[in-house]
């Protein structure tokens, strides 16, 4: 994670007293930290301490002309690789959720395309209040990562959920969320396909599969965090759009193929994570198919094969580095080796989806990466962690192929 640039937003809660320790630990992990205080944060921690520990001038005021002249707030928003807000008080969360920009920190939140992580801290009743829950829900929908709070004794003497995570836990969650920076993809153009496709039977029915898009979205985010310019061609999923990633929504396999081929000449690495329907109904009925006596107790449908998207890209004159995925329920490695050869892929990532706790729609995965020089298994962990490891491994394989 060396060299990662963190804007650390500090809200006005008692937990702000832990931020000098947080700054020390972020700096010790190799990060460049610029602290940004809200007006009320000054009551709990001093700018002098934070400047000394971070080695950077603390920012606090949107109207500080000296600071604005050295690095304006829009420049600061662009400088950040990650916006980390700790502690995030109930008031600060409400302002963020409503898109207010009435001070430097909330303005930075709106102006940055970097991933945002918030570590809430407040009294247990405030955390449990419907308004706070609503604000947290809205922030999550907007793509903000919420870490904590934890259960324990609070400054007010009450016991319950609301304590900010300890600095060491914030640092490790930050590393898990944003990934190791050593996987540099600086300036590399990456295309990710994710989610399922839907093949229409009639206006109200379709053929699809159980892909949630989680693994593909995590890969798009990991590549973005490693410095890549990322495009995400996504089937219909219920996930927030990753910040700083160009998203192209599609529905059918044919639309996904068209969107991919439109971009393929302009990319360096493609991850085909989408679970594309292999077949579609030969025709989509213009009106809802009725249940009639005439049809009898069973009906049948003719299906036609969809074009293979990865194979179409592999057939281009100068194809990108191609990474396919294989969801298998039997002989996963053997089938994936065959699939890699058949589709002319540089590498393939194998999921054994016979285990329902990994693969489709789960929060965790366990995969094996197969390529020309061998194979590596990434043990069970979150899809974000798997994505970081895959991005690391693929950036090394891509660099090797180029030289
Ligand atoms: O989305 P999640 O819920 O997080 O689940 C993740 C996942 C299980 C969907 C993902 O990790 C995964 O394994 N994706 C590939 C699933 C799949 O459909 O595999 P496949 O064996 O059918 O296809 C092999 C490869 O060919 C895939 O890269 C696929 O994108 C590609 N393909 C398939 C059909 C087609 N017409 N064109 C293609 O390019």
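-> sequence recovered:
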């Amino acid at each position: 994670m060396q060299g990662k640039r963190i804007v650390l937003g500090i809200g006005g809660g008692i937990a702000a007293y832990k931020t000098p320790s947080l700054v020390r630990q972020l700096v010790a992990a190799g990060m460049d930290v610029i602290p940004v205080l809200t007006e009320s944060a000054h009551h709990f921690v001093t700018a002098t301490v934070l400047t000394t520990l971070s080695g950077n001038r603390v920012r606090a005021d949107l109207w500080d002309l000296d600071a604005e002249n050295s690095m304006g707030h829009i420049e600061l928003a662009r400088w950040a690789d990650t916006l980390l807000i700790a502690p995030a008080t109930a008031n600060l969360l409400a302002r963020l959720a409503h898109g207010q920009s009435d001070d430097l920190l909330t303005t930075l939140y709106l102006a940055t395309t970097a991933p945002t992580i918030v570590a809430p801290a407040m009294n247990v009743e405030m955390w449990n209040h419907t308004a706070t829950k609503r604000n947290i829900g809205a922030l999550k929908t907007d793509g903000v990562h919420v870490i904590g709070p934890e259960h324990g004794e609070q400054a007010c003497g009450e016991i319950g959920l609301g304590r900010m995570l300890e600095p060491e836990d914030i640092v490790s969650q930050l590393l898990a969320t944003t990934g190791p920076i050593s996987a540099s993809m600086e300036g590399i153009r990456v295309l990710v396909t994710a989610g399922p496709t839907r093949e229409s039977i009639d206006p109200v029915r379709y053929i699809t599969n159980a892909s949630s898009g989680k693994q593909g979205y995590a890969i798009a985010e990991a590549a973005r965090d490693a410095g890549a310019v990322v495009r995400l061609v996504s089937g219909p999923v219920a996930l927030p759009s990753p910040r700083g990633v160009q998203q192209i929504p599609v529905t059918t396999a044919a639309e996904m193929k068209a969107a991919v081929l439109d971009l393929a000449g302009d990319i360096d690495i493609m991850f085909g994570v989408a679970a594309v329907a292999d077949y579609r109904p030969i025709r989509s009925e213009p009106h809802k198919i009725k249940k009639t006596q005439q049809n009898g107790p069973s009906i049948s449908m003719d299906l036609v094969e969809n074009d293979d998207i990865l194979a179409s890209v592999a057939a281009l004159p100068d194809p990108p580095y191609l990474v396919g995925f294989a969801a298998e329920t039997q002989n996963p490695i053997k089938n994936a080796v065959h699939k890699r050869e058949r589709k002319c892929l540089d590498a393939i990532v194998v999921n054994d989806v016979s285990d329902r706790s990994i693969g489709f729609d789960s929060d965790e995965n366990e995969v094996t990466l197969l390529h020309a020089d061998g194979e590596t298994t990434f043990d069970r962990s979150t899809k974000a962690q798997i994505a970081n490891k895959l991005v690391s491994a693929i950036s090394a394989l891509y660099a090797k192929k180029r030289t």
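The chain has a mean pLDDT of 92.
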